[in-house]
Design brief:
Blueprint lengths: L2 H10 L42 E5 H18 L2 E2 L9 H9 L5 E3 L2 H9 L4 E4 L6 H11 L5 E6 L2 H14 L3 E7 L11 H12 L5 E8 L7 H20 L8 E5 L5 H8 L10 E5 L11 H12 L1 H6 L7 E12 L2 E4 L14 E6 L13 E2 L5 E5 L4 E4 L11 E5 L4 H4 L4 E5 L5 E6 L3
Parallel strand pairs: 1-17, 2-9, 3-4, 4-5, 5-6, 6-7, 7-8, 8-9
Antiparallel strand pairs: 1-10, 10-11, 10-16, 11-15, 12-13, 12-16, 14-15, 17-18
Length: 439
């Protein structure tokens, strides 16, 4: 067993948190507390009420579908994939992505990189500036492992100077990517003077810093023409750096693509080359494809399916794989239903959760259902508090206290970070696995 596989196996022997939410009864029993790898043996079934609600669940079949879909899409363009791990911060899911062919994992902070490393991830793009001595020290410690590969983005001479001084003292050489930005956007070099200052400072630390390529985040733009021009600018800039001998030896990296516009990045950069003597790795970084959603990324998927020839030829699309289940907690007045789920459980920054399925358990004294039924379109969440969701329904809607609802979400990133463990279920809602998060 390799070191990486051994670290991944350590995830399976971790005990499920007895104080966590969304677990079965055995998880709270110190005599029966299951390990993550033993969860399938518990025989929990969501519809049998073996699991405490609210609960966040992942569909195994849909996870597998999304992994294969992105693998096929990326392969069709001859590109590489480093999915953004901050979406899930789940090393178990990182491993699934790596097993499906991902080149590496993208992360946003030094502690996130450290968490990924502890569970076997050995190639990382830190899609953020590395600022501060303690953060630099984390990366420096990881670089003591010769198998660990890390790329950090820079956009200012001041940051490069700090990195150069720090890593010159450690005797290590840090891989850098020049980040390009746009006016009014987030980070990234905006003008020629700043770019020149960054490159000049990198050149002063040849033993400590190695410029390996160019990085962009096109998600700060929302116009297709502007995005395409930005991507072309990045490619031209990379060619200029190469022509002027400003890139370090070894493979060169050109990377971009959040979860909304990855198709445009693939179209614009596919086939780019620096010549036969130079390896160019073009790396896309979407993270939300793994679980997808019914909100902001559903809209992006609809655009991709309509406009991208590769996606159309695949005759399938990404599927929402993350759902939250909650009980009907109270029906205090006609037309108002209170669900036992709130801001502590679900993202709400990009739209409230959407009722997707309704299920009535087989409880004594009232008829139940065999399987969940689609929730009517006129059942709608109107607001959420910390632990409660307000759902508007027509007067007389067939709902009872104790009914179960599955809700789809928009923006999986901010739902994942509200759960320390999520359950993986098969198509019959039997729990077959669990994944932990490390935010």
């Amino acid at each position: 067993m390799t070191k990486e596989n051994n670290l991944q196996s350590n995830l399976k022997i971790r005990p499920l948190s007895p104080v966590g939410k969304g677990l079965g009864i055995a998880a709270g029993d110190s005599l029966k507390q299951p390990l993550v790898g033993e969860i399938a043996a518990q025989g929990w079934n969501l519809l049998h009420e073996d699991v405490s609600l609210p609960v966040a669940v992942l569909s195994e079949s849909r996870l597998q579908h999304n992994l294969q879909w992105m693998k096929d899409f990326i392969a069709s363009y001859g590109l590489k994939l480093a999915p953004h791990g901050k979406t899930t911060m789940s090393p178990a899911l990182f491993q699934r992505q790596l097993d499906a062919g991902a080149w590496g994992i993208t992360l946003a902070t030094a502690p996130q990189v450290q968490a990924a490393y502890e569970f076997g991830v050995r190639r990382v793009i830190l899609a953020n500036q590395l600022v501060g001595r303690a953060n630099m020290a984390i990366i420096s410690r990881l670089l003591q492992d010769p198998d660990f590969e890390c790329y950090v983005i820079v956009d200012s001479a001041a940051n490069v100077e700090q990195l150069g001084q720090f890593f010159a003292q450690t005797g290590q050489r840090l891989n850098l990517l020049l980040e390009l930005g746009v006016a009014g956007g987030r980070t990234g070099v905006r003008d020629a003077a700043t770019r020149a200052a960054v490159l000049e400072t990198i050149a002063r630390y040849p033993q400590a810093l190695a410029l390996r390529g160019v990085e962009v985040y096109e998600g700060v733009l929302n116009d297709e023409a502007a995005i395409r021009e930005f991507l072309r600018l990045a490619l031209r800039d990379l060619m200029t750096l190469e022509a002027h001998g400003q890139l370090a030896q070894g493979p060169v990296i050109l990377t971009g693509a959040g979860s909304a516009w990855f198709d445009l990045v693939a179209e614009e950069w596919a086939g780019a080359s620096l010549g036969d003597a130079r390896v160019l790795d073009i790396i896309l970084r979407p993270g939300c494809y793994l679980t997808h959603d019914v909100g902001i990324y559903k809209a992006s998927e609809a655009r991709i399916q309509a406009c991208n020839p590769i996606a159309r030829a695949m005759h399938s699309s990404l599927l929402p794989a993350l759902q939250l289940w909650a009980y009907v907690q109270s029906i205090p007045e006609p037309g108002l239903v209170i669900l036992g789920l709130g801001k502590r459980d679900a993202a709400f920054d990009a739209g409230l959760p959407v009722p997707a399925l309704h299920f009535r358990p087989h409880n004594k004294g009232r008829p139940g259902a065999e399987k969940p039924a689609p929730a009517p379109a006129d059942w709608q969440l109107t607001k959420m508090m910390d632990q409660h969701a307000f759902m508007q329904v027509p007067a007389g809607a067939d709902l009872q206290v104790g009914d179960m609802l599955a809700l789809d979400i928009s923006h999986p990133c901010l739902t994942f970070d509200k759960w320390r463990q999520l359950l993986v279920v098969d198509d019959n809602y039997t729990v077959i696995d669990a994944v932990e998060t490390f935010f």
